[in-house]
UniProtKB/TrEMBL annotation, chains A, B, C, D:
It comes from the Bacteria. Belongs to the class-III pyridoxal-phosphate-dependent aminotransferase family. It is an enzyme of class 2 (transferase). This is Diaminobutyrate--2-oxoglutarate transaminase. It holds the Pfam family Aminotran_3. One of its GO terms (molecular function) is diaminobutyrate-2-oxoglutarate transaminase activity. Keywords: Aminotransferase, Pyridoxal phosphate, Transferase. The gene is ectB.
């Protein structure tokens, strides 16, 4: 039997039974079985280095031992697993610890909301509360933003393929240029002009929503000064500032929240992905107390009480009790950035451009399709890495934050081999 | 210290740190800790009979031993927990078992899609695919429907408080009268007239979406003949029929799918809640192969690969390998229906009306606020039961399907005591 | 040269230079030149009886002598012709006379607004003010309603071909069943149920808009009791009642306003078409003083000051100084109704159904396409009469109100000949 | 009796009977009676120089003698006045003459559509056909655009007060920066970037609609190179280019169409206002033959056959048979521009900025409210001139094109006196 046939056989169940919508099992056509730290193994026992981290969900790596232990213990004790937003011990513990470890030390005061346990759900809740509080209907989002796939969050997502998938026109939103969007033009001046001119055709919005580093949009990192200016515009016109920190939060850029270095205090913050610690579905929405104007149950969802996730989430907070974790991430980020720069210089045929911040980096590659070929080759060689950007033109590095120097080097070495192979 | 003060202290964390949007922890002001089968215990050790089942998520009861074992084993073996839609062993197993145990025996042919792991997400995916396939934008839903809280699914949800929470007008949908909505008037003739008249002001929709038994809307059970007629209208005008079986599916009404007794074959079926077996977030969308016209990744979501849920879900399918489970549910449903009838007759002051089907039943109570008082009293007495309906006028019975006769009797006996107390 | 060729030559300019959107010049392929009273003549000198009256714009007939004189005199004196909403003598005179002759005697108190001089513009202004006053966004309209072709008024128009022409989905409106829409079902119960149930999926609207007799929709005349009930629903829920009297007003049904026999007092009334007396563009919106909450210029339009129209309009009001005009219309309406009934009985193959009220009547004909054939034949024989209804199934009689008995008889006699010819 | 009391008495009818929406009768509180050429007289016999021209409707001045004669003759002969889109002699003559005098000599090939006789109606028809032809739903318009007040055209109008008046969110449109909108930034690069990036959040639109000189928006004249670039973008992405020449067309800027100097050929052109010659309601939409894909009656309107307007319109075309008319306008425009410059220099306290092109010019004045005060003073002194711009900051000069040098000088002299008085 040839390899091709074996491959075919392996993926048969997915090909025959699963909807055509499936995507990752196409690019990585194997069956994953086990995972630990920054490594995965498929059913053939082949090992993979993880530069993907569940699209930013596994910042603490796969199967953290302490989290595993806590979850198993809870199940063995018949702890309540599903509870909507009833009071439970894990929910109580998470609330208290999140406040102590994350909010208080950062001098942040937020009410914590548990929407349905997905990124799109926290975004939908953020948009709703901003509209309720301000009585305005429109929201400003940015070029190449990604906020989710349900109609509310999709309406602030920029990608045309994804928007078109809605099957209906998407309303009540305006797309503005992200930092550095048009060469030599200052996107803040545009935004400001549209807001201050009553004849601009753009109404004062309920909110401005943004990712400080756009993950799906091509690893575009806004400058801190740009974030500060956006916050200032929001204050000037009583617009709520929503930071969607679903992918860039939870330490991904080196600080717990990605906006910390800018010194801003968003009105609403969306968290999901790595908030659940071990990869279990969970999301929270942080809302400044003065804007927490919900009626009881005005936004709800069946799985807003995923207790196993709360347990792992609470355990994960331990990483934030001291500055060590954060410092280690930043150190690894520096190493990654240096290596990326070296690769760009060493392989000028890539016409590569370094992107990103923290452990959320990428190389934009000019030639159409080349980034995808590099990722495909890397998979064959045992590295899980994917593309992003409107034309899949960016090779995106999103390793678990707990990866060690050895893992990073090994992964980058596979990447370099793949570049050589593909550009040969 | 008085009880009131203790109560206050107990819920302090939730009151101070959680958003005002929280709801269940208001009506049931305690902290739940453990749960098994049809019972829960709070941190004070108080026991509760569960007539709520996580709003239909715990059809197989709390902490099913076999499911617990499988999950623990998987974690202990460092099984991959989070995987988006990559191929994994638990995903493969679920696909194969679901096909063998559920689809094939019912002569149903569906592609299986994994949207984000919540009810609202499967509904959003169903609406998208219907719009894509038909090229039409509007969707017909029904009075008192509940399909979710994100903007797409909220647009087909009928409740005005929930719709208003959107903060924007909801578009591309038309609300039609559910079965038996207006006294002495046939809602099918009405619907048919609107569809056949090109001057009706209602465009041919992409889809008609419905729950066969409306859970949140007041436990309104459509007649089988009505469902058949809706399917016939859909066929006549090439409209996709979407059954939202998130709450009524997974055996809740006695058969796996709630629509089986009507002999219809929906084009799209939405499942969530109890699909995950033990209460972990999971959802699937079933799509007839000819309508599975998605592009890869056209609808996605980070948590569409919740492997722990897949494991429990696969284990749960064992219940459907023979007819015994189904028959037992129906038997319990009959007993519940008889008891409900007796209560209505015994307490005429309720002006009660029996509602529902299978183990999804309720008593509609005329006097405003009375249903809520009964539920509050029941909670004090150790029974978890909630209201539904546009004015919270229905006491809703949704026990785990695995409840035994003793549990049902005990719960109903607490209910009767509560009625007596409240109507005294 | 054959007749067909001559015909071709005659219409060449329109065929070659005018947009494909042209419609009446297709059904009546000739060039009209002169007109007086209820007669028209084309450039070949052929005479036509007018049962169309400019789609209800020529209630006072073509070229009323007194109106002609007044207009000519005004022009000869260099009276200001175009004035937006500046103060002018003809505007002042119209305002005063309309108040004295129409409003006061009917005990109606309205502010008079001059929107752009077309029907669709008065409807757009009515929808705007209703939304502003109530702060609600949606409007309820009825099956087979026609209110105009600009996006606002089109959104409350029911015809699917016309709606589809928008090229965008039409929002913020709900279509409800008009009087007698579904056989044996009471449309008021439906409407009431939807309004009173907070779980109906239909929000409380800013307004209910309706035509008392639907012209384009098939000459459907609502019963007075139905109109009264709609008004009562509006009062109960603080919904503004908008009567679109563009076609049915100005005496068309026998009284000045079509709603007078119902004894209701709408909150907003839309008038256009015959308001301008001689067929010149003009429209007014009547608004109860308490709802006249416009800011200056909040709705405007260049041609809202068409002084020639004001002059003819003021002259036309003379007809309403006594009851004679109204009584004469009702007498002619009775004669028309009797003749229509006789025709239906005499030609049972039509399966005809009498429709309408006043001099706004029609015969609905079951066989598809037959109504159109009768109208085409009538044109050849010198009668201008058109179809209406969603499938063009109604032969519509809309003669000038000033037609005399002889004219009516002559027209109806041509109609009968056409029926005989076509059904032969 | 004091003057104030007389004034009060004079306007009493308007104040008491007309809706609060009236605007011009507030700023110019008198009753106009007669008008000829560039002069108006009120009922007190006071004379006014007209620098307003019916907001651009009276390019040929008031009561042109030849037009008056033709209209009177037609009425006296019982010419058909109202005809929807039936064939009539005046309609035929207009079509033929417009083709010969305007289109052919400019090498333009358009089908001519008669929408309802107002500017907003031609814009609504343009948007509809663009959406139908392309199958796309959104339309790009520009900052400070004004296209009309019905929901379709209002959705491409930028002014926030006017948009807010809709009472509903306005959809399917995107506002982009007009030429020179943000200092030192190139609005074309901005627009281009949004169009070429599939991740911009802005879908490819059906059309781009613009005024070459924005009248209501503050007399902002786009440069010819900017117009050329917009046309190039439209061609590159198969976007229809709609020029709304309602105010700037009909010779206002010196050429018949305002876009002629740019050498572009728009796909759709909207004309109204002065197209009717003498100020009677009329509008046409010009559509390239390949885009004239209307179904018969897909857009219609009762007053699309205003024969009196067609007669004056045909007469007005005589002005375009030679170049003299056009040259005279340009000469007067130069004089106006020079005088405006002189005034700006002479009165530096205005901080004035010259705006506009042809006989569509203005002075933007920095100090809030000053422009309005100048216009109010001018009215007292016998000059009709109004403000425009988002903050009414521009004094707008729109004299009839037929004004002579004397008239211009007289008007500008009153203006100067008013400036002196107000800034004193």
């Amino acid at each position: 039997m040839t390899t091709a046939v074996i491959q075919d056989t392996k993926m048969k169940t997915f090909e025959e039974m699963e909807s055509a919508v499936r995507s990752y099992s196409r690019g990585w056509p194997t069956i994953f079985n086990k995972a630990k730290g920054y490594k995965l193994w498929d059913t053939d026992g082949k090992e993979y280095i993880d530069f993907f981290a569940g699209a930013g969900t596994l910042n603490y790596g796969h199967n953290d031992q302490a989290m595993q232990n806590k979850i198993i213990e809870y199940i063995q004790n018949d702890g309540i697993i599903h509870s909507l937003d009833m009071g439970t011990t894990p929910r109580k513990n998470f609330l208290e610890r999140f406040n102590e470890v994350i909010l208080k030390p950062r001098n942040l005061d937020y009410k914590i909301m548990f929407p349905g346990p997905t990124g799109t759900n926290t975004v939908e809740s953020a948009l709703k509360i901003a509209r309720k509080v301000t009585g305005r209907d429109s929201v400003i989002s940015f070029t190449n933003a990604f906020h989710g796939m349900t109609i509310g969050s999709l309406s602030v997502t920029a990608n045309s393929f994804k928007r078109h998938g809605a099957g209906v026109p998407l309303h009540h939103t305006v797309s503005m240029p992200f930092d550095d969007y048009v060469e030599d033009q200052d996107s803040i001046s545009y935004l400001e002009r549209f807001l201050e001119d009553s004849g601009s055709g753009v109404a004062l919005p309920a909110a401005i929503i943004l990712e400080t580093v756009q993950g799906e949009g091509g690893i575009n990192a806004a400058r801190m000064i740009w974030l500060k200016k956006v916050e200032a515009l929001c204050k000037r016109w009583d617009i709520l500032l929503i930071i969607d920190d679903v992918q860039a939060g939870n330490g991904r850029t080196g600080t717990y929240f990605s906006f910390e270095p800018a010194g801003i205090k968003p009105d609403v913050v969306c968290l999901s992905k790595s908030i659940g610690g071990i990869g279990l579905p969970m999301a929270i929405t942080l809302i400044k107390p003065e804007y927490d104007q919900w009626g009881p149950g005005e936004h709800n969802g069946t799985f807003r009480g995923n207790n196993l996730a709360f347990i792992a989430a609470t355990e994960a907070l331990k990483n934030w009790e001291s500055v060590e974790f954060s410092e280690a991430v930043q150190e690894k980020a520096n190493f990654l950035r240096e290596t990326v720069q070296k690769l760009i210089e060493k392989y000028p045929q890539l016409k590569g451009e370094a992107r990103g911040r923290g452990l959320m980096q990428g190389i934009a590659i000019e030639e159409e399709g080349l980034a995808g070929k590099i990722c495909a080759e890397a998979f064959q060689r045992g590295l899980i890495v994917e593309t992003s950007g409107p034309n899949d033109e960016v090779v995106k590095f999103l390793p678990p934050l707990v990866i060690d120097r050895e893992g990073l080097e090994k992964g980058l070495s596979i990447l370099e081999e793949s570049i050589i192979q593909v550009t040969a």
